[in-house]
Amino acid sequence: MAYVVKMPKLGLEMKSGELSAWLVSEGDEVTEGEPIAEIESEKTTAEIDAKEDGVLRRVVLAEGESTAPGGALAIVAGADEDISGLEADAGVGAGGDEPAATDDSAADSGAAEATETAAATGDASSVTKQRPSGSDGPSGNGEVRASPRAKRLADDLGVDLTTVEGSGPQGAITESDVEAAADSGAAAEADDSGAAADTADKRVFAPPSARRLARELGVDIGAVEGTGQNGRITESDVRAAGGASAAATDSAAAAGAEATAASEPVETERPLSGMRRTIADRLGESYREAVHVTVDRRADAEELLAAANAADDALGVDVSITDVLLLALSASLDEHPEFNATFEDGVHRLHGEHNVCIAVDIDEGLIAPVVRDVASLSLAELAETRAEVTQRALSGDFTMDDLSGGTFTVSNLGVLGVESFDPVINPPQVAILGVNTIRREAVPTDDGDVAVRRVISFSLSFDHRIVDGADAARMLGTLVEHVENPWSLVIAAGGR
Fold first, then answer.
1. Most distant CA pair in the chain: distance in Å?
2. Helix 302-315 vs helix 321-335: angle between axes, to the nearest 10 degrees?
3. More confident residue, 90 or 11
4. Which of 186, 181, 176, 182 has its CA nearest to residue 214?
5. % of the chain residues with pLDDT over 70
6. What are phi and psi of 408, to 5 degrees?
7. Phi, psi of 486 (to 5 degrees)
């Protein structure tokens, strides 16, 4: 049965998705359950699987292009099945041949008309690879059929796209084609085109972040052995494969340091990825709309550290102070439920489960995967769950489920030596806890002496529209009590 492949909605907040890579080419047979494309939303990446056996008859959205959830990506049908009705539903015309032109003037006019038609109708196949009369060199890159990423890469590498033979859907130029042209120095030769096609045809299962990292490290992504789910290549795999080349790069960089210092400074433009743009938009919106206030307080950390060490020895799993802190936080949220909450459409909604987001720093920015229902987990389950969601975030294997449904967020900059900061609330939540570094301080004792103790401090940011400063002070005071006396929490959670 023929059908239109559509952009899925990866979470309620998704506004658009980018087609990162086609894993099959137009005309290829596809098998039910087989990944056929990779997409990237504002917050995550995903693969699209074929729903039924068939042939990828028509590609509607090229690599690097975006569409809203529900937008058409391609048409899958039987080899001889009539797809004219589906093409109409997808907003594209039948066929895909380039318009003919009788002379140079007509060719220029036809190219412009085809481009305008494609913009209005979504018919990507009607855009020609015609180069404007009188233009040459990289300036022609805007008139060829190529993904935005391929165009940016061509500009970076000095490749003239009008000389590159595209191996992507309907002749579109891919990043692989550009890289092949740059490596060979003669992209117009037939052998180079064949090599690019071979590269494009090879199915490599890797998220866009891993592909970008491979390009930065000079690693052949097709030669990397994937350790992720179903053999998916992670950023860690790319870094491991690039170890030797990275050492060589460092050596070359050191050799050229003197020459670089003597040259003029170079400005670098760094376009924001979809994820980075979303982070910027959401945090900007949070800071503009929420009335941020931050309160700080210190706590004696000796018992916290001792409890974490004891649990680590007793439970047979790696228990960190973060895990014991999550127990203390969950107990505090039980006593102050107004902070385990969201604020949307004028409604302050208090949630029953403590779904705590843990901020994780990855290459593309800060994300916050969720540890769900912390209060119901044993300490061993909590430690294992937190480690698992953190590792998925670091390796790039996280999903929208990992990032959705949080009710409170913890951001730990203490591991980087930060002593105090003002964390920004993760909307639509109403509060976020900043964890600062543990340091040694001289503390007066009851007998008038001085003892050196390890001390930790916390920074609680809250939306003053929803909760008051006195409420936040009481919440932070409760947290400090649990941090300084964690044993009952650890024992109870250890026995679950």
1. 100
2. 110
3. 90
4. 176
5. 71
6. -160, 150
7. -90, -5
Please answer whether residues 224 and 238 qualify as being in contact, where contact means their C-beta atoms are separated by less than 8 angstroms: yes
Dist. CA 203–CA 50, nearest whole Å: 15
Closest residue by Cα to residue 218 from 179, 269, 267: 179
Tell me the C-alpha to C-alpha distance, in Å, between residue 218 and each of 45, 60, 225, 244. Answer: 22, 31, 16, 10
**Centroid of chain to Cα 441:** 39
First to last CA, the chain: 51
CB half-sphere exposure, 274, CA atoms < 13 A:
22
pLDDT tens sequence across 29-84: 898 888 888 887 766 677 888 888 999 999 999 888 888 888 899 999 998 888 88
Measured CA distances, 436 to 304, 330, 418, 469 (Å): 14, 18, 6, 20
DSSP state of 429: B
Token pair listed for 428:
């639509």
H/E element holding 289?
helix 274-289
**Better-predicted residue by pLDDT, 334 or 137:** 334
Contacts of 380 (CB under 8 A, 6+ apart): 315, 316, 317, 319, 494
265 HSE (CA, 13 A, CB side): 2
Nearest to 207 by CA among 52, 65, 35: 35
Amino acid at 189: E
